[in-house]
């Protein structure tokens, strides 16, 4: 559900600070991680793929070949409130997207394509958190 996805996004987004420098993702290219869900957000900067790669590594969600580690990803999602209602479906969506872009050898570029595919799939089945849900949370956190 959308609230769970919001929590997972904000949780995952916590690693952005740690990954900005090494991925070369400037604030100009992405201010806050949750903008990822915005309709107008464009998946054009390879650096964003590198940042998601770094963030996934930070939470130990990747295998040695930089593919999703299914078990760890399942556990990560379940670590959020009501995560169990989303874990299996999210892992499936990401894996389906992964398979679609298997021919892209560059890890950062491939993960960028997977991230866009994940965002679009979630939107199409109303799993994506709305900007209203995300902004409300963001304002609460800042206070
Ligand atoms: C749930 C919130 C954010 C997640 C965003 C990124 C999703 C992109 C998935 C990339 C997975 C990388 C797998 C590598 O094959």
Structural account:
This protein is mainly α and 143 residues long. The chain has helices spanning 2-13, 16-23, 46-58, 70-78, 87-100, 107-124, 131-142. The radius of gyration is 14 Å and the shape is globular. The mean pLDDT is 95. Bound molecules: (10E,12Z)-tetradeca-10,12-dien-1-ol.
Uncertain runs with pLDDT below 50, 5 residues or more? Answer: none
Query: In angstroms, what separates the terminal alpha carbons?
Result: 25 Å
Bound molecules: (10E,12Z)-tetradeca-10,12-dien-1-ol
Could you give the count of β-strands? 0
Into which percent range does the helicity of residues fall? Answer: 55-70%
Oligomer: single chain
Structural class label: mainly alpha
Q: What count of helical segments does DSSP give?
A: 7
- Morphology: globular
Task: Indicate the topology.
Elements: H1 2-13, H2 16-23, H3 46-58, H4 70-78, H5 87-100, H6 107-124, H7 131-142
Helix pairs in contact: 2-3, 3-6, 4-5, 5-6
The chain binds (10E,12Z)-tetradeca-10,12-dien-1-ol (M21).
(10E,12Z)-tetradeca-10,12-dien-1-ol (M21) binds at residues 8-9, 12, 52, 56, 66-68, 94, 98, 111, 114-115, 118.
